[in-house]
Amino acid sequence: MKVNHFDFGHQVIRGGERKKISIWDIVVGDVIPLSIGDQVPADGIFIEGHSLLIDESTMTGESEPVRKDSKRPFLMSGCKVIDGQGIMLVTGVGINTEWGQVMASVSEDNGEETPLQVRLNGVATFIGKVGLTVAVLVFVILFIRFFAIDYKKPQYKKPSKIIVQIVEMFSIAVTIVVVAVPEGLPLAVTLTLAYSMRKMMADKSLVRHLAACETMGSATTICSDKTGTLTTNKMTVVRAWLGNAENDAVDSDEFIPHNLHQTIIRSICLNSTGTVAAAKGDAEPVISGSPTETACLGWGLKLGMDFKQLRHATRILHVETFNSTKKRAGVVFKNDEGIVEAHWKGAAEIILGLCTKFVDEHGEPQEMSPEKRTELENVIGGMAAKSLRCIAFAYRPIEGSNVPTNEEESSEWKQPEDNLILLGICGIKDPCRNGVREAVERCQHAGVKVRMVTGDNVITARAIAQECGILKDDGLVVEGPDFRTWDDARLDRDLEKLVVMARSSPTDKLKLVKSLKQRGNVVAVTGDGTNDAPALHEADIGLSMGISGTEVAKESSDIIILDDNFTSVVKVVRWGRSVYSNIQKFIQFQLTVNVTALTINFISSISTGKVPLTAVQLLWVNLIMDTLGALALATEPPTDDLMDLKPVGRTEPLITNIMWRNILAQAIFQIVVLLTLDFAGNSILKLSPNDGPTDKSLLKDDDEPRDVLRTTIIFNAFVFCQVFNEINARRPTTFNIFQGIHKNYLFISIIVVEVILQFVIVQFLNRFARTTKLEAKYWGLCIVIGFISWPVGFLVKFLPVPKKQFQPRLNLCCGLWGKKKKSKAKDSLDATESIPKESEQTNDPIAVTSNHHGGNISDADNRRLPSNGEIHDGEKTHVVSAV
């Protein structure tokens, strides 16, 4: 697998000297300095530093940055430094890093067929065998009949005549085989996949592997990452206590007194290590810094803060950097009134403990009584219960003369932190994306179970899962370390109930995907980090994020979600079901054509020794109807009711009972009508012997002109039956077959082209197709016969179908699901299934890597056709009782 790399070079300390070398020249034992904005170039151990904060979300999935010190010394390649500085000792490079182990686990591809390919191969094989059997029988019957009856006729005295007759028999047999083999099936599959892939781009989904389109339609569970997929991956202030009131309207300054408004804005702007870059055009200002800093600065901008103006207009006298022990940061500055103020920001419970006053709704400081302190503690507790990180802001005026003016004194001076005045408390979190809850509910309604897998702590994971609608009362929440201990018995008992996994490692996510697949699920996985790559690679469908996703994640995925939004994942499911549905529609249409043509020729050959549909006519049907039919049905757009159906099971047949009902009903109707015309057409149509073509070259031996006229009518009626039935095939389960047809201009155009081509071959290509020109009344008769396919299709939908699936050899062979093309892991079906298991053992490179969670030493270790009797008509569902 090829991944794009860029060599930016990196500073190292060798022999006591700093030098810049290529990242490819870094070796184990190198000492590397790190500062804000750097990307960790290799795995290593923290030696020394100050407030070193690392973003490990791409490797561990945790949205919270990790502070590195002697207790949490591990550094992983590819992570970013977002605050502080430090020095690391390189312990692993290349394939021996965590990143390298992930790459090794996703670099193989065993080239196995996809589930739909296996099913379609079964369909094609079965149809081909049936066609070959019919062709052999027709040839044998014609051969025996000729030498038993026709051979004695005077016109066959010459050997050349006999040879010509045998060759014609053979050509008919070969034609039957050609017609029976569904050449249009691969075309239909390719067209519907290509069409869907192009349309999915408009829905913010880039398909890397075509087969993933149809597989996504069969997904039974989606294992979604939290950060960046379900959430915005942007810490945001969502609740605040200001002016003695708690409020959700954090982006409005209407409820904040003016003097409090100015003070809190100064506190947010000046007591921050983050920066705000001016907006360009209509774009939003770019905020940089730690997640907490960006959340606070973003809140300040909503309250009307002018970051650049305040920074330039204010003289900062002293800065207290954030201390992980004290959990607060401070700044001393002189405001625009010349008053020196000391401001503090930090963990709400810590800041509250330092305050003796608070600012009320009038913007005035008030003494903090024990009752008020308890009330504020409850406010903090309430925010924490909602999984909000609480940050408090406080200040106090101080004497300017007490603030040292030179750098040496300033380094020794301690900023006053007693008798503070509480300005406000804000609750921040990584909020859910808009529309995620509705998207999750749509998945659940469609029978697709959504699971959340995250590296965050269990409290945050539970809160987000409940907000998104993933976690219900009966759902199970488990932590990664606990899940690792589950044996097969526990997995069998509790796996289906598991909906949230917190503090998960790449190994945990991979085990979850494998376990779900082994128990018959079709698994889709979303992820954006390097840590997600093994699970993306192992899943039936891997979906990576286009904006926040790492290159490794994208390379390991089948589909890239360009807007990083879970709602786009639901659209992918919808398109996947449309692919499967369109293929089913074409199979229904094609099998109707094949069954009718083979049956008519077979019965006629037995009865009369002649076939009403000639080799050229059958090839014409095969070339024009199947090819154009594939194009028409493969480009049917998805409908909303696709998400009202359950996903296709692993062993569910491709051809459902409803499809068999529709195929047999239409085939029986066409066979009865066309055979009636063949056997009794002369008398029914009152054809005299001389009715028909005057061109004698169209006549064979003892044929009469009316025989050519009759077979032309049969051929024309047969084609019009397929034209009308093609419209039936658009909506196999609904009574309104015209629903949405006015929006599908391509389908309408193809129907028109088919009619025009049929008119041309009947009226003008007589010698080529052995047809004769038809009068208007015969054209009307053919159209009426074709039109009757509509009421037949309407009435047959009232017939119930058995709930138990019809399982001929066709469905048994095409019901077997192959493993995903790139799957390397064991992919066996449930032991209760009658289908043999298929398993493959593989070494798991991830399993042997160190599992230091967060670097902490203490943690190392278009509609699918339903198989029942449901008929969907618009928004109504009619359930027909089973036979």
From TrEMBL:
Its main location: membrane. The keyword Transmembrane applies. It is a multi-pass membrane protein. GO terms for molecular function: ATP binding; ATP hydrolysis activity; calmodulin binding; metal ion binding; P-type calcium transporter activity. Residues 611-799 form the Cation-transporting P-type ATPase C-terminal domain. Residues 827-840, 860-883 have a biased composition (Basic and acidic residues). Catalyzes the hydrolysis of ATP coupled with the transport of calcium. This is Calcium-transporting ATPase. It comes from Ceratodon purpureus.
